[in-house]
Amino acid sequence: MSDEEWDRFLRESVEGKAGAPVEPSARARAVERRLRGRSGQPEGWRTHSPARPRRRTGWYVTGLLAAVALLMVGLFPQQLFGWFGDNDAEQDKAPLAAESQSPSKAPGAEPKLRATRAEPFRGSPAARWADGAAGITVPPAKATGWMDTAQVERALRKSRDFLVAAGLDSRVLRGERPTKAIALLNPHQQDVRDYLRTSLSTATPTDKTDPLLLFSRFRPEKAQPVGDVVKTRGRLTYREGKRGALEVTADVTFVYPVAPADDDGRDAEVVRTIVRREVVMSWDNPAKVITEPGTMSLVSYTLDMTNGGCSEPTGYFVPPFDTTDEQTADETRRLDPYDRSKALDTNNGTTATGKDCATATRS
């Protein structure tokens, strides 16, 4: 710079003339040095620059694996659950829900396993049935006929009590008199009185006077129960009957495991006698029918049985131990005693009459 230009610079700076050069401030010099160290377009000192997102690779991988797992469960549930145990086997052992309506089909096939004293229901659909009275479903009560709701509830409970006393009482199973069951029957019903007197006193009952139509009995010198459990499955239904009575229908299957009376218990032969009973009971209005409080009249009673005897009626179930029964079953007529989807047929060859017995497909 020449001396003249330097003099002019000093003079204009002192006088504050427009366009005179101004020395940069310290802040400006610092910004300038920072910008010189960067490349590209400079940013304003008030310009917002959002933070760069962090990569969360772990979460993405976890979500992807979860989605794949859900897809596999939806497409291959049985195979996946099989990795953690035999789910079907556990499900097969689970108790069945109570029977609230007539089933649509027979129970599925079971492995053909021999019943033992330790496992008397082994290889049978009854293994998943309830024990004793618990297997007889009692529906909710509502006012019907001459009875209010509370009376219907009591009548349903007593109807089940009758089935328990007739088919589950251990003394009755040993051939003793069914006293508790008889106490629930209307003593003024003449035809039932005649049936009870004849069936429980004669040594040679007929088809119509066989006590097995109502009561389960075994000769203690021939057969003994295996364990204390009888498996049951069935239900009660009700409606308004004649003269405003409460008509209760019981449809129940009983499974009795028994062994020979002289068995030593070591390698017992266990036979399951399977009995399905249908009993229709009428809880009559005492203003219209002669009856006693707490008793009911019998409308009808029928049974269907397997492994209970194919010979003439004896008044007791006759399980076929070791030998065949006196009368050979008809191989052309086969039935499943566990199939509760079909109505009970008293003429199908398995009733107490012993005539033309059908062959059971399983026991």
Low-confidence stretches: 80-91, 347-354
Broad shape: elongated
Mean pLDDT: 82
- Indicate the radius of gyration in whole angstroms: 44 Å
Give the DSSP E fraction (strand runs of 2 or more residues).
15-25%
Describe the overall structure.
By secondary structure, this protein is of the alpha+beta class. The chain has a domain at 112-305. Helix content is 26%, strand content 18%. It is built from nine helices and nine strands. The protein has helices spanning 3-15, 26-36, 57-75, 77-82, 87-93, 149-167, 170-173, 179-182, 190-199; strands at residues 130-131, 136-137, 223-225, 231-240, 246-260, 271-283, 297-306, 330-335, 358-360. The longest helix has 19 residues, at 57-75. It is elongated. The N and C termini lie far apart (124 Å). Residues 80-91 and 347-354 have low confidence and may be disordered.
Observed structural traits:
9 strands
What topology does this entry show?
Blueprint: H1 3-15, H2 26-36, H3 57-75, H4 77-82, H5 87-93, E1 130-131, E2 136-137, H6 149-167, H7 170-173, H8 179-182, H9 190-199, E3 223-225, E4 231-240, E5 246-260, E6 271-283, E7 297-306, E8 330-335, E9 358-360
Parallel strand pairs: 2-4, 8-9
Antiparallel strand pairs: 1-4, 3-5, 4-5, 5-6, 6-7
Short description, anyone?
With 363 residues, this protein is α+β, with helices and mostly antiparallel strands.
